[in-house]
Each structure stands twice: as C-alpha cells, then as structure tokens.
C-alpha cells in the first residue's frame, strides 16, 4: 500500500488490485469515496473492516499526494485531521469518560461506508437491468391513441339578428338630424346686457345679468350667448372683464371712461 | 412453442421504424438463413396474429405491424368542444341568410369590411353555409347559401321566418350603439337640471 | 378465437405511444367495462404473447409492448445509445429510488459530497425523478421521488422490484446512520448486560 502509483491522466481502475491502486485525486468524489475504495482493498466485509488500518491507509495516501506536491482539497485534509485524531484515540488506553468514545466514532464511520457501498452496488445493479433502447425495444412508430376534439359552434338566433342589425346600421347612409332647440340669440343677449350694464356700477358676476325666467336648456343657451355678448361689448370698450383664475366666475362692469350708453 | 428464429423476426418487425422485406430481415442474421426461409417465417407470424388486435401486413413486399382498420374508431376518441361564434362570423352568417346566394365580395360590400377566409371556413365547418355554385360574372366567384342544418340550429322553418328590416328596427336591433348612448346621457342631464331647479 | 373486447384492448396497447393502465383502457370504452375486467383481459393478452418476439409487460401499473431482452443483440444498432449516466448521477438515482422521497441534504449525507446542480437536472430531464413536495422540517427542503418513466426504462414492475431492496431493508442499510448507530449501540449494551449477568 505504500507504493501508491499516482496516475493523473488515466481513468481510475477497479480498486481490487491493491498492489496497483492507480488513482488521481480528481477521480474521487470526496473523502468518503476515497475511504470506501481503500476499505474495499482490505478485501473483507465492511462489517469486519479494520478502521485503524483504514485510517492508516488514508493518511498514507494523503501524505503521498502531498509529497508529490499535489494540491489536496480542503475536505480531504479535514478528513485526514479527523482520522489522525481518531487513530490516536483508538491507540491510547480507553478513557471511559470520553464521550463520544473512539469506538463509537469508528462505528459511525463504518456505518456510513456500508451505506455508501450499498447504494453504489444498487446503482450498478440498476444500470445493469434490461433498459429500454439498449436491451428491450418499443415500437418505433406507434399509431398513437388520439383524442379528437369535435368543434361545435354555438350561436343563438338573437346573436344572428343583432349582428345583422349592426351591419345594416354601419352601412346605412348617414343622415344627421339636428333637432330645433330653444335658444337665446346673440342679438337678444347683447340687447339685454347693454341694458343692464348701464344700471350696474360695481363688478358683478355675468350670471347676475341673466334673466331669471330662463331654465333648463334655455338657461345654458343664455349663458353662452351672454358670454359672447360680454366679449363683444369688451371689444367695443364698453365693459371691463375680469376673472380671478381659470374656471372662476367672470365679472364685468361698465367701462370707466369713454363711451356712455345713450 | 415459437422457435427462436420466428421470435427474432417478430421482434425485428415490431421494433423497426420502416416496413422490412425478407431480404433485409435475412441480412440481420448474416448467412444463417435465406430470404425464402424468412418469408415463410414472416407468413407464419402473420397467420399467428390473424384475428387478433395486431396485424402483420404486406405492402409491396415489405412487412409491418399495424392495428386492424376495423378498430380505428377505438383508437381515436371524439369529444365535443363547444365554441361561441365570433361577432364577425355571426355578421357574415346573417348576411348570407338575408341575401343568399352571395359571393364573398358581396358580403364584404354589405359589411363594409374585409372578410377573412377563416370566417367562411368556420361557418362551413359548422355546416351552416355551403357553396351554391358560381356567379356568372367576370371572375366567376363562388356564391354561398345557408343549409338545412342552419335552419334547424336556429329553429327556423324557412328563410322567410327571418324577421324583416322593419321588425328588427321595432325590436331596437337597428338602434346604433352611440345613439342609444346619447339618449342615456340626455336622461342624465335632465335629472341634473331637475336638481338645480 | 379472440373476442372483440380482447382484440380492442390489444390494439389500444399496441397503438399507444405511452404505457396504459386498466383505468385508461376502460375509459375508452365509456362505461361498458370496469378497470377490473380490463385488467383480467390485459393479463390474458400478456399470457398469450409470452415466449413470442413481442411481450406485454407491466411497469408501475401501466402496460406496454416491448421486445424480449434476450434478443437485444439482434435489435441493437449503433445509433441506439441510451443516455450514459455519470457515476454520480447513477448513485443519486439509486439513492432516490431506494429511499424515496429524499431531500438533497439526505442524498448528500449518504454520498459524503455535495450534489452538483447538473446531476439532479440530468435525472429530471430524463424524467426518471420528479419533485415530490417538501419535507416539513426547518427550511422545508424539496424532496424527490422516482417516476413511472423510471420504472419503464429500467424494466421494473414497481418499487418492490428494485434489485435487492428487501435484503437492504432487512439489513438496515436503508436506515439513516443515526438510527443504525443507536440500534448497534443497543445491541452492544445488551451483550454487555449479558456479560455482566
């Protein structure tokens, strides 16, 4: 075991040939994997394995790798340190107060190795089974079972008639019917405003000039006409307009100077 | 007991992705068997499966496994998948019903928009419309009419059962959507004015 | 003479591109037959094909036709290359199959190394393993189990078919180290007690 041949290029070979254990550190999947391989080289049932011998094998392997100036990954060194501790504990006279005892630690390690070995063997047996595409074959082109969806279209007579109504409507020649509405004409508003502005001396809201008997649509029309009339009178210099801010009420009063109403 | 050669030929035919002839099958065994021997074996396999749910059939000298044609209905299961007719399809169907027989160009002229081929396909798939010959005008366009299935589905005894334009107007189906909207808004205005008064 | 129902079930199994269970087969007949009746028919078909070049096999309750393994040498072609598994992936797959459901931490406890992300991905991509919920412990780790596709690929009727699983269980090799350790210490104690007596 002391003559470990280290092969960094080659693939790991079966670990059974303990005189020619060719390995590279990269080929092990961690310290437990390496320990299991070393344990197998003892050629005994894992239940009968000598943990002390295994620890020595592991430490020798790591020492060998370091002599060759190989970079040894940290987890291998941690395991080496732990195993070195286990080794000394196993060799020293038993201390009944030590907890856990070195024997218990050794047992745990043994149980872990057994479990890994069992799964490794199970994997090999699994892969050796008759596998589809390697050992057994399926039909290359099965017809397949198909679920065919039968589309059924649904519409009611109402849908149909409503659709036709919309078509007719969309394509009918467009005729605009403008209904006659009660309005206050600009002339009437101008006349009314001219009359009142002479009476009003101070600022007054535009709405104050509206005739009180206008209601509904007529009132809206009166507001619009009076507004235009106010603008017209302002243009002529006969009234002054002011507004505190946008959308605030509009105030007006007779112009200070100039033209006096006849 | 089926002999080993017959088992092997059967497995080869089963796993193959193409039909195989006796020469190809024999080739797999090296020089151990002749195509003639294989042909006899293939025929024995076909005879063994006759009347079962698996058939070995010959097509132009090549053999392959398939399921019997009379069981095809069990291998495809049909399921209803109801779908609502789209608005466009409803319009086209209505136009065909009111104006039949009509060509696609005429449908488009009435609708005022282009009609996709898919819309007519849907209506034909539903078996509500069918081609009714060609219009004898340049280009000889296909013309469409409604079917008996159309009358049945919509509960009509004949085309004259379709309500006339006046009936539609009376039912409010000719009211433009935006006019109805304006009316509703007008009512709102009246309420507001009432509150102010 | 093979009866109509048996022919139909045989054709369905032969035509299907996935394994079918008796419930799926019965479903295709509407309410005419029960899954139990179909199961008996499926078993009769499997018996009829036994020893031929086509076998009907059960995998996780689902049935499919395949060629017998002893004919592999005649059917294998160079292009047949089933997914080559890395040693790590094979080990992880075995651990999941024999311990399922297991978390990644439990897999790592057995293997003594971290599982690279790619290993589980490869197994999930092959659809041999699938997440099976979360373990209700701190951190709620995801747990994994094997799939029906796993049983099919490896020719297993069910999990009890896993090679050597009964022996492994009897030997306590599927128990966690902590549990095995306590049992071993218990036995030691008994021996000690016996010695003292």
Describe the 3D structure.
The longest helix of chain A is centred in the middle third of the chain and has 26 residues, at 102-127. In chain A, a hairpin with a 6-residue loop joins β3 and β4. Chain A has 262 residues and is mainly alpha-helical. In chain A, α1 (31-40) crosses α4 and α3 (74-91) packs across α4. In chain A, 45% of the residues lie in helices and 8% in strands. Chain A has helices at 31-40, 51-67, 74-91, 102-127, 157-171, 186-197, 217-235, and strands at 146-154, 204-205, 239-243, 250-254. Chain B has 197 residues and is α+β, with helices and mostly antiparallel strands. Chain B has helices spanning 4-15, 22-27, 35-49, 72-75, 87-99, 104-111, 117-125, 148-153, 165-170, 177-196, and strands at residues 55-59, 62-66, 76-84, 102-103, 129-134, 142-146. A three-stranded antiparallel sheet of chain B has the order 4-6-5. In chain B, strands 1-2 form a two-stranded antiparallel sheet. In chain B, β1 and β2 (62-66) form a beta hairpin. Chain B starts with a helix and ends with a helix. Chains in contact: A-B, A-C, B-C. The A-C interface holds A 29-33, 104, 107-108, 111-112, 114-116, 118-127, 129-139, 142-145 and C 12, 14-17, 20, 28, 64-69, 72, 75-76, 80-82, 85, 87-88, 90-91, 93-95, 97-98, 110-113, 152-156, 162-164, 168, 171, 173-174, 177, 180-181, 184-185. β1 of chain A pairs parallel with β3 (76-84) of chain B, so a sheet runs across the interface.
In short:
The complex is a heterotrimer, with 1 copy of chain A (262 residues) and 2 copies of chain B (197 residues). Chain A has 7 helices and 4 strands, in the order ααααβααβαββ.
Fill in the keyword field for this structure.
heterotrimer, A: 262 residues, mainly alpha, 3-stranded antiparallel beta sheet, 4 strands, elongated, disordered N terminus, B: 197 residues, alpha+beta, Arc Repressor Mutant, subunit A, 3 domains, two-stranded antiparallel ribbon, 10 helices, 6 strands, 50% helix, disordered C terminus
